[in-house]
Amino acid sequence: MFPAYYRQLACAAFAYPAIxxxxxxxxxxxxxxxxxxxxxxxxxxxxxLEDDSVHTLACYRSTYQLAxxxxxxxxxxxxxxVKEKRASLDYAQLCKICMQPSGIQCILIDDGLSGDRDLxxxxxxxxxxxxxxxxxxxxxEVEAQVGAILLPLDSSTVSDLLFVVTVNxxxxxxxxxxxxxxxxxxxxxxxxxGLDIAPSGTDEDVEKSLLExxxxxxxxxxxxxxxxxxxxxxxxxxxxxxxxYKKPVQFHTGLGDNDITLTKSSPAHMQPVIKAFPETxxxxxxSSYPYSxxxxxxxxxxxxxxxxxxxxxxxxxxxxxxxxxxxxxELSPTNKLLWSTDGRWWPESFYLASIQSxxxxxxxxxxxxRREELTESEAAAIVEKMLFHSSNRxxxxxxxxxxxxxx
Length: 407
Known about the structure:
Elements: H1 7-15, E1 18-23, H2 47-52, H3 57-69, H4 79-88, H5 91-99, E2 104-110, H6 116-119, E3 135-139, H7 140-149, H8 158-177, E4 182-187, H9 189-192, H10 203-220, H11 228-245, E5 249-251, H12 271-276, E6 282-284, H13 292-301, E7 305-308, H14 312-315, H15 318-331, E8 337-338, H16 347-370, H17 376-394
Helix pairs in contact: 1-16, 1-17, 5-16, 7-8, 8-10, 8-11, 10-11, 13-15, 15-16, 16-17
GO molecular function: hydrolase activity
Domain Amidohydrolase-related: 236-382
InterPro entries: Amidohydro-rel, Metal_Hydrolase
């Protein structure tokens, strides 16, 4: 009764340009092989990455798709052959092969990932692979750490120290908020102390937390924000300033490496702080997987909450990806869903995230059209919003979609 192929929806899913609202830089050519390539499709590390991740459905699927991209013959489509082939390619050629078919018009890059400054290219370098200029997402924990390291160590009291840290941090955040290249901010509170961010706190608790962090810094020369009252205090500063300057704030939620406490990575913990800052736009990253339904609920009941449905490509199996997107759509207003690759380090991460997510969007919405829950025109318009228009509006990018971007 219904056609197996919907041309209008297919054009939206497979050919419409995309704004990648959350990604990280590519490695420099010098460091192209510095990190284990298996990190392409897995958040595991150590033995779990080296020994086990290659047996996931995500790896098998990625292997097949990359073998096809690199022109490997049947029988050569295995993981080791893929790694050997990519190593034989000129780096600029490899980047072009992966980025050109992705359909990415603009990338918003979080350049605060550990090791970025030593191993990766600067954000502007990526402009050669997009049709619109790359913009920055400022990681607030990095700004706090760098700013603190530059401060004198001789404050007379912890109250004085907190005052100096606060003034310095606020100045750095305001400077970023006034920078046209900065599209928004990001917090990794999920990794450091969890998403149960307190909407308020006492000076006494913050000072105690700062003293602990500062004592550790003087002893180890490492200022790492893993002290909850201080972390929450700095996040609140950013939420206030970001609300004033209309810059969205991204939060890592859900899926991540084993440095997170999984039970504290659910965005449900964020309800109090979301309520406390109604003028600030919150963006929940990574589909909040495996807490996608909780994230969908938050987008449905709070005007200032949006959901990014990235990183599950290519980290989940195809069935897992479809299920996660369906869960997100159970409650979420479709104008509050933002596409991303969470691409990082390797150009293949952008390629795989793009082709897999586009296929999933087609599959999920084609089912809706077949069941007469949406018209094909409505489904196509929703996909175009998810890929491009919602991010363009939310971040104030002012871009016009380049409709012939995918070759």
